[in-house]
């Protein structure tokens, strides 16, 4: 049985960044759910499935077995025992993943694969509904958040560093709107699981957040 850490929280809280660093420190597999959706898209392309045909996509997805492994410290994604990592970031795959990720059967198949991975591996997974829906029995559940003002400023700084023009107030309004949508959607809304530990990173450095989560996880091992 794997040791599992579930990290949930709103957009811009730094979940993926933190989860990857915790994975490295604790020698866990970081389950990149986005990469798994892309691997599924690779499968449809290889099988010649019409991605606009929802019934065909729903029927075909059961034939895909997707898992994540680490080789020489690098994350590798395998589709039916073939390493497809090199294909995942192509535009064709990205577009196909965008179309097929909304199909209920695809989400159900990936949920099954994610849970299988969690059962057989020590892993950390981040998202909006990991601790509440995907891994309700995770050994450690973290709800990582920060104020909307702090998350907006972080995003603003990222965009400015890239040379993009942006407005801080608009970014904060967008983040607050997304929070509302995520928290009020009918399927798997964003919420803190009852047994999750709240980590507010508003006034913490990345290193401090990682240290805090590692400490919590070590206590539960």
Walk me through this protein's architecture.
The chain is of the alpha/beta class and 221 residues long. It has two domains: 1-28 and 122-221, P-loop containing nucleotide triphosphate hydrolases (Rossmann fold, 3-Layer(aba) Sandwich), CATH 3.40.50.300; 32-121, 3-Layer(aba) Sandwich (Rossmann fold), CATH 3.40.50.300. The protein is built from nine helices and eight strands. The strands form two sheets. A five-stranded parallel β-sheet has the order 2-6-1-7-8, sandwiched between helices. A hairpin with a 2-residue loop joins strand 4 and strand 5. The model has no long low-confidence stretch (mean pLDDT 92).
Q: Summarize the biggest pleated sheet.
A: 5 strands, parallel
**What proportion strand?**
15-25%
Topology pattern, helix = H, strand = E = EHEHHEEEHHEHEHHEH
Summed up, the helix count is 9
The CATH topology annotation of the largest domain reads as Rossmann fold
CATH class of the largest domain: Alpha Beta
Question: Termini separation (Å)?
Answer: 12 Å
What helical percentage do the residues reach? 40-55%
The unreliable regions are: none
Give the spatial strand order of the biggest sheet: 2-6-1-7-8
CATH architecture of the largest domain: 3-Layer(aba) Sandwich
Class from helix and strand fractions: alpha/beta
- Radius of gyration (Å): 18 Å
When the domains are counted, the total is: 2
Q: What is the 3D shape?
A: globular
Please, what is the average pLDDT? 92
How many runs of DSSP E, i.e. beta strands?
A: 8
Q: Look at the structure and name the CATH superfamily of the largest domain.
A: P-loop containing nucleotide triphosphate hydrolases
């Amino acid at each position: 049985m794997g040791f599992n850490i579930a990290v949930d929280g709103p957009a811009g809280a730094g979940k993926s960044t933190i989860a990857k660093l915790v994975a490295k420190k604790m020698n866990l597999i970081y389950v990149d759910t986005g990469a798994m959706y892309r691997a599924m898209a690779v499968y449809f392309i290889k099988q010649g499935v019409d991605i606009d045909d929802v019934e065909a996509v729903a029927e075909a997805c059961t034939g895909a077995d997707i898992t994540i492994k680490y080789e020489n410290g690098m994350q590798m994604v395998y589709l039916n025992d073939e390493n497809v990592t090199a294909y995942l970031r192509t535009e064709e795959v990205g577009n196909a993943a965008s179309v097929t990720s909304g199909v209920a059967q695809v989400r159900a198949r990936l949920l099954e694969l994610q849970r299988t991975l969690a059962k057989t591996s020590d892993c950390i997974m981040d998202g909006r509904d990991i601790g509440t829906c995907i891994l309700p029995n995770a050994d450690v559940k973290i709800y990582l958040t920060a104020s909307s003002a702090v998350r907006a400023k972080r995003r603003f700084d990222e965009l400015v560093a890239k040379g993009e023009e942006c407005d801080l107030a608009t970014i904060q309004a967008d983040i607050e709107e997304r929070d509302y949508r995520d928290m009020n959607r009918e399927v798997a809304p964003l919420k803190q699981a009852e047994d999750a530990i709240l980590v507010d990173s508003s006034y913490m450095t990345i290193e401090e957040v990682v240290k805090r989560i590692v400490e919590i996880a070590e206590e539960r091992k």
